[in-house]
């Protein structure tokens, strides 16, 4: 059986079959649950970051998207594993390559007050390194990925969180969007799939089970009681079958065993994650655990290079096809530009609402 399929299969079967128009722009973000201390000591963690610095610099020098921007990567660092030297090294890597850091957090049996303190401390530490962004008021803002997928105490066994009003706390501490989903095959997966939506905290676990879809031309409000969720693609891949029979889950996870490629790209586009009424901008939020060697070999080696070449060749052959490498923050800004009904080249809106280090307008 496909684990947890019952949680979202109905949503998949009943999904809208709308397709992106032939003239389209893909907005591609790789959101990395970057854990250099995974089964590792500090020396190994530093060596992993050094490897990323060396190899990612080569990739960003070699490839460009339709607008001339090199590949982007967003390092969501687990703030409960904070180490000054390691985090400074990641920040330096970002400065060299145009990538960015955001917040990742694993926690369990937590309380609302402790979670708030943890997020604020991690937020301020990252800001002191020159990471994160600010809104028009000058307030610090950050993107978030929940460890073990258990956003808003969503694990069916009640593990890996403990805070049932987590969405509100994230919003209050400056989170501009959550990038945890999809979490399938984890039991933390919610019924809403392939969506960009706002969820309102209801004080119970899994408040993000459903929400209000982001829509072009909707009134621009801060939605103080709602959190934006940016989901990656989720569906079934009939080209890769378990035991040669059952389709495997396509969840946008980039691994050494399942790197990006043309067939997966076609599935991501078919999921057609977009702002309602703006089908031509297709949001492809991918995820990985890139510090682990078996994954970094694919992300920094030939599999990812082949993927970049495929995108370039397709764009050269099809004038109506464009693609843009973005960070998590830039993806959010482009989403808000679509929501505000801005038109034209999505690359123009990388700093639409949240800017790195910007204070004031």
Low-confidence stretches: none
Tally of discrete structural domains: 1
Question: Distance between the terminal alpha carbons, to the nearest Å?
Answer: 52 Å
Q: Strand share of the residues?
A: 15-25%
Question: Helix count?
Answer: 9
Biggest sheet architecture: 10 strands, mixed
Q: Can you write the helix and strand succession as a string?
A: HEHEHEHEEHEEEEEEEHEHHEHE
Number of strands: 15
Q: Give the helix/strand class.
A: alpha/beta
Q: State the CATH topology.
A: 7-stranded beta/alpha barrel
Mean pLDDT across the residues is 94
CATH class: Alpha Beta
Question: Roughly how much helix do the residues carry, as a percent range?
Answer: 25-40%
Shape: globular
Radius of gyration: 19 Å
> Which second-level CATH architecture applies?
Alpha-Beta Barrel
What can you tell me about this protein's structure?
The structure is a single chain. The chain is of the alpha/beta class and 361 residues long. The chain has a single domain, classed as 7-stranded beta/alpha barrel (Alpha-Beta Barrel), CATH 3.20.110. Helix content is 31%, strand content 21%. It contains nine helices and 15 strands. It has helices at residues 5-13, 42-62, 84-97, 112-128, 166-172, 262-271, 293-299, 302-317, 328-339, and strands spanning 24-33, 74-78, 100-105, 133-134, 140-146, 175-178, 196-200, 212-213, 226-230, 235-242, 246-250, 253-254, 281-288, 321-326, 355-356. Strands 1, 2, 3, 4, 5, 6, 12, 13, 14 and 15 form a ten-stranded mixed β-sheet that branches. Helix 5 links the parallel strand 5 and strand 6 (175-178). Helix 2 runs parallel beside helix 3 (84-97). The protein is globular and about 55 Å long. The N and C termini lie far apart (52 Å).
